[in-house]
Structure formats: C-alpha cells, structure tokens
C-alpha cells in the first residue's frame, strides 16, 4: 500500500519530499564547493566575506528544512515514514552545518596558511556531497534505479578514505610540530573536516534504511 502512495502523492501534491531532499543536499554541495574554493585560493582578507556567503547558504538550508517540517506536520499521509523524512532531512542539514563549521574554525583560529592535507580533505568532501546528491536523485525511483546502491557505496568508500586521511594528517602534524597551540588548532580543524565525511555517510545510511523498509 505504501509503495503505491509514493506515486499517488507525487501526482496529488506539488510538494515532493524526494525533490526537497535533493534541494537540501544542493545547499550542502554549494557549501562544500565554497569551502574548497576558498581554501584552495586562500586569502585572509576575504575570509570574512566567504564566511558570510557560506552562512547565507546555511541559513537558506535551515529555512528549507523548517518548511519541510511544517509541511510534514500538516500531512495526513506521507510517501515514506514520517520518522524517515525527519531523520534524513536532519542528516542532510547536519552536512551543511558541518561544512560551514570548518570555515568558522579557520576564521576563529585566525589561520594564515592552509596545510596541503586540508585541500585533500575539502576535495574529498565535495565528492562525498556530489555522490550523496546523485543518490538522493535516485531515491524516488529506488526500485528501478541501477545506480542508487552504487552511489551509497561510493559515499561509504569516500568516508573510509576520509578516515585514512584524518589519521595520516594528524600523524603528520604531530610528527612535524611540537607547538601545543599549533597541535591543538589543527587537530580541531582535522576533526571538523572528518565530521563532514561522517555526516555524508550518516545520510547515506538513512537512504539505505529507507530503501530496505520500502522494498
């Protein structure tokens, strides 16, 4: 019965939860792109402006999520379980927040030079967000999709690469420096970078759970 509701709701309602998931992840992708571009062409004098730019996107993502929750509260029937809609939308929002938080920490700690490992991380985060976005675009059609499972696996694989990069980066940091402030600052930044990949994997796990429940 619920499987048929997905088709019915799409026809009866202009508001489509599956489309909204993708739109929420679009915000994450945009934030990831800004983060990577900002740190690849790092200029301390423009960092404040970039922080405002990324915060504006994060705020728009919050508004879109609140709109989804308001809509959900008034719906009698939903295409998938309410708890799944709430969970997945929150997991996607967590990604956007995590990406913004990286730039906040770099600005807060008054970083003047970006370590090369950071750019590897931000490039990886962009890929994670893009793969998750593609997975979300296939979620509506999960029974017939030939790529959804591959994209979920890809996000998981990228997150594992992030774990390795995190370990190597922190190890290299402690090998090169004995300065307690430098160690504290960069360990925190690497932690925040890893959380971005973790957040993507968490959302991918929700997608996998939704597919299993509705198969």
TrEMBL record:
Gene3D superfamilies the UniProt entry points to: Phosphate transport system protein phou homolog 2, domain 2 (1.20.58.220)
Source domain of life: Bacteria
A Pfam family that the UniProt record links to this protein: PhoU_div
InterPro entries: PhoU-like_sf (IPR038078), Put_Phosphate_transp_reg (IPR018445), UPF0111_domain (IPR052912)
Family statement drawn from the similarity comment of this UniProt entry: Belongs to the UPF0111 family.
Stated name of the protein: Phosphate transport regulator
């Amino acid at each position: 019965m619920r499987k048929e509701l997905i088709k019915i709701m799409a026809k009866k309602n202009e508001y489509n939860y599956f489309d909204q998931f993708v739109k929420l992840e679009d915000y994450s992708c945009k934030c990831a792109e800004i983060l990577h571009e900002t740190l690849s062409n790092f200029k301390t004098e423009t960092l404040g402006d970039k922080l405002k730019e990324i915060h504006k996107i994060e705020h728009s993502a919050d508004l879109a999520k609140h709109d989804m929750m308001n809509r959900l509260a008034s719906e009698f029937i939903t295409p998938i379980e309410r708890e799944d809609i709430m969970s997945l939308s929150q997991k996607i929002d967590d990604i956007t927040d995590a990406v913004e938080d990286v730039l906040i920490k770099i600005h807060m700690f008054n970083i003047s030079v970006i370590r090369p490992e950071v750019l590897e991380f931000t490039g990886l985060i962009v890929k994670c967000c893009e793969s998750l976005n593609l997975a979300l675009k296939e979620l509506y059609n999960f029974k017939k999709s030939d790529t959804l499972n591959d994209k979920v696996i890809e996000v998981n694989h990228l997150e594992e690469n992030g774990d390795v990069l995190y370990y190597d980066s922190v190890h290299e940091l402690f090998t090169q420096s004995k300065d307690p402030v430098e160690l504290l600052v960069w360990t925190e930044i690497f932690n925040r970078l890893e959380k971005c990949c973790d957040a993507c994997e968490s959302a991918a796990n929700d997608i996998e759970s939704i597919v299993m429940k509705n198969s």
